[in-house]
Design brief:
This protein is mostly helical. Helices cover 63% and strands 4% of the residues. α6 (139-153) packs antiparallel against α7 and α8 packs antiparallel against α9. The chain has 14 helices and five strands. The chain is elongated, with a radius of gyration of 30 Å.
Length: 388
């Protein structure tokens, strides 16, 4: 399968090699030939057609197993978290036992095994054979969600969006599944750069969630994720605002105020994500809020002094800037500490938690340096200022 070596029980790879050169008594045109010379009309030409060497891999160990044994072996391997072996057994059943009563389940399980291994192309191939986004139920419905996920990881965001929009349009799905599909659709739109569409999609999902009489119909993961990604949209808008000294003190002040407004908008949505109560997204949102304040600090520290200010005015400008910087550092520390406290309370472990610990230590060092008079470096040329 897929050109992979299949290992036998002793760990050795069993391979069959096809001959690389075949002498065929054919009168072919358009093929790569060797040693052919022009012949008079009416005389048949014998040609030698060369093919590239082909390696055919045989899985002789599994060749002797029937579909029941393959399904049992795959199930056992999956339960033991041996997803490579599980994919091997389930894949063999799918490919060589088309009439097996276990084939559909093996197809889905093969997709799951590849997904756990982050083999997204292989997972897509398995799930897409089962998926029926418009009408499917059971495995066909679940496979449709899985296809969208594999497309996301393959960065085929528009295809994933179309698949998910089909699921969102289904009135026969429970509210929780429709909201799940709509949130994932919005995320794919964010990733494809369609932030306006994404915000509209995510807000529709949140409105549908808010309208539910029983919020227990939906896992808290999805509304928390939706709020988080609306926050991400405003973070992207925030990052797009550049602080340019060439705009003068008034223009720079306007840009800084607008950037701060976008930061507060992003923070508001991250806080809503935290309030939903899902541990993973609460930690992620807290980490992002702290990072926003840290980022704004970096921009303010490295922003060049407006060129129209004289030396005395520039000194006052830097002093006022330094006061605002200390406020930003203090806010960032408070948010990072609260995020870590919440993560420890719920036992959350993620990349966001690790990043938050590292950021907290960094910001504390910056605040200490500022207290010693070292926190605000001299103005830099605009070309050396960090990008948003």
């Amino acid at each position: 399968m897929d050109g992979m070596k299949r290992m036998d029980a002793t760990g050795g790879a069993r391979r069959w090699l096809g001959w690389g050169v075949l002498a065929l008594g054919l009168t072919l045109t358009g093929c790569r030939t060797a040693g052919t010379a022009a012949k008079p009309d009416g005389v048949q030409t014998k040609q030698v057609v060369e093919f590239d060497p082909v390696t055919v891999t045989a899985d002789l160990e599994l060749d002797r197993l029937n579909d029941e044994e393959l399904f049992a072996g795959g199930t056992s391997a999956f339960a033991a978290n041996d997803f490579k072996q599980a994919a091997r057994y389930f894949g063999r059943l799918v490919d060589f036992h088309p009439n097996s009563p276990h084939r559909r389940q093996a197809l889905y399980n093969a997709g799951l095994s590849h997904q756990r291994l982050k083999e997204w192309d292989d997972a897509y191939g398995r799930f897409s054979e089962l998926a029926e986004p418009a009408k499917g139920q059971g495995d066909a419905l679940e496979a449709s969600f899985r296809v969208a996920e594999t497309l996301y990881h393959l960065e085929r965001y528009d295809e994933a969006t179309r698949m998910l929009s089909t699921l969102v349009a289904r009135d026969d799905l429970p509210a929780g599944r429709r909201i799940e599909a709509q949130v994932q659709q919005g995320i794919c739109q964010v990733e494809s750069g369609k932030t306006d569409d994404a915000e509209a999609t995510l807000r529709k999902a949140l409105s549908a969630y808010d309208a539910l009489p029983d919020k227990a119909e939906v896992e808290d993961y999805f509304p928390a994720q939706a709020h988080f990604f609306v926050g991400e949209i405003y973070r992207l808008h925030y990052e797009a605002v550049k602080l340019e000294a060439s705009r003068g003190s008034d223009g720079l002040a306007q840009d800084l105020n607008y950037k701060a407004e976008l930061l507060l908008s992003a923070q508001g949505h991250y806080l809503r994500s935290i309030r939903v109560g899902n541990g993973y997204w609460a930690t992620a949102a807290g980490a992002q809020i702290g990072a926003l304040y840290e980022n704004l600090y970096e921009h303010m520290v490295h922003s060049p002094t407006p060129p129209e200010l004289n030396a005395e005015e520039a000194g006052v400008y830097r002093q006022e800037l330094r006061k605002k910087i200390r406020v930003l550092l203090t806010k960032s520390i408070n948010i990072y500490e609260r995020t870590l406290e919440a993560a420890e309370r719920i036992g959350s472990q993620s990349a966001f938690v690790d990043r938050t610990r590292q950021s907290l230590e960094k910001v504390k060092r910056l605040l200490l340096a500022d207290a010693d008079g070292e926190g605000t470096p001299p103005p830099e040329d605009a070309s050396t200022a960090p990008h948003s």
